[in-house]
Amino acid sequence: MPASAMPLPTMTHSSAFLLPASSSSAPRADDAAASTTYALVVLNQRLPRFAPLLWAQARLRLCADGGANRVFDGMPELLPAEDPDEVRARYKPDVIKGDMDSIRPEVKEYYSNLGANIVDESHDQDTTDLHKCISYITRNLPGTENSNLCILVVGALGGRFDHEMGNINVLYRFSNIRIVLLSDDCSIILLPKTHTHEIHIERSVEGPHCGLIPIGAPSTSTTTTGLRWNLANTSMSYGGLVSTSNIVEEDIVTVTSDSDLIWTISLRH
Amino acid sequence: MAPAPPLPTMRHSSAFLNPSSPAPPDDACATLALVVLNQRLPRFAPLLWSRAAVRVCADGGANRVFDGMPELLPGQDPGEVRARYKPDVIKGDMDSIRPEVKEYYSNLGTKIVDESHDQDTTDLHKCVAFITQNPPVPDKSNQLCILVLGALGGRFDHEMGNINVLHLFPNIKIVLLSDDCLIFLLPRTHRHEIHIERSIEGPHCGLIPIGTPSTSTTTTGLRWNLYNASMSYGGLISTSNVLEEDKVTVTSDSDLIWTASLRD
After folding, report:
1. pLDDT digits (tens, 9 = 90+) for B98-153
2. Which of B78, B107, B113, B254 has the most crowded CB, counting CB atoms within 10 A?
3. Degrees (nearest 5) of the Cα angle B22, B42, B34?
4. Model pTM?
5. Are B240 and B186 in contact (CB under 8 A)?
6. Closest residue of chain B to A157, computed from CA coordinates
7. Which of helix, strand or coil describes residue A181?
8. What does residue B94 show for φ and ψ, rounded to 5 degrees?
9. Chain A interface residues facing chain B, Cβ-Cβ under 8 Å?
10. How high is the ipTM of this complex?
């Protein structure tokens, strides 16, 4: 009889970055969140409503090409009570990266004059804009180990389907880095098969709908706790069962699988 | 070793999106069915509606038709537009459709099919099953093409569940459409010829191995063609490719999702 396999290490996940900033400077109760370094990447789609909240928590803010237009136009729209010019000057990206075929010339000039680092990548057609941004962040946020780094991405979902799928592939290609793709409707993360996952649910901002998606390869055996329809050594595959429209029942969801899975949860409006 | 027999060819065309194409546009898609899910209508919704032999709304999709058709046809009287764009069937668990919308269409003769008892399949799955069980033109059911609006974007689990419907019904041509793009399944059982409507689609396209890696995929007609190339999540997937010719061919050992962008 074979010896039982070593238990997988546990990886915890938290969406504390979606909680409204407290008015005081009291430290967050969630220690994990307090030690996390956030970076923000803005791709070329309409900003979600919580973009200013994410921006405030990020140590490094990158726009991929046309994402700079979205910040320039969108931040004043999301903060209508404030003077647009002050908002624009305050929400200045640290870096604008990509092939520069979408950014408006006046937007590029505006941010360049304010000191944003403009990095032209038009020579590199082999990787997506998101891939380039993730690579840049890993090389340019010194002192952070991957386990403390969490890269938040807005604008990666919806729009052109090939873009969306290419962006999800970036999660697989950088599977050792926490990357969260966010839209107004939902968030998604990769759950690598190398770990057992504890997903801490922030009930005030996320849920109730969730799903587990074997987008890259079938899963022979996935087991969960904390969902309305839990899986128990269940197979999942395209052409078979894919867990969608599931419901979060508890504050912690656990997932163990023999295959990399995409976890998705709806965001409350 | 004897060579494997050649795969049968499956032809695909998006002529249904070309306003200049005569209707019915194409033998391969002689009969169109339209399914409307619960997202904002794309701009070409009236065109597809007019070409469809049957129109099915999934639950809140009925709200989208009720609100959206008059918006897409602003030069016309809203009351007349609503009466004209009347779904044949509204199906689903009825938790999204507004009561006044349900009543309006019911009074006009739309068949309302309440499926709130069935939580195991998605709304799209129910609609596809309904259409295949009730083919609009029974003797042409092998030329049926189901066009779906509102399946992409929004909640990601919904989108992924909708794509799984393509895998669950590989023998039926189902096209998911948005303002930005279209997608359909290329089953590995066939060699595929995709006829490109250059005035409507492109230039961008992609081939996505959703669900299973591909060991060997070969294409023609793209800027970056594949030659017995492997594709997988974590490795190469073909995105931001570009259409070069009017016909694209694809052969693969794995089911692939084809996607093409739509011109504004």
Report:
1. 999 999 999 999 999 988 777 778 999 999 999 999 988 877 666 899 999 999 99
2. B254
3. 55
4. 0.94
5. no
6. B153
7. strand
8. 60, 25
9. 128, 157-163, 165-166, 168-169, 172-173, 175, 183, 185-186, 188, 209-211, 213-218, 237-239, 242-246, 260, 262, 264, 266
10. 0.94
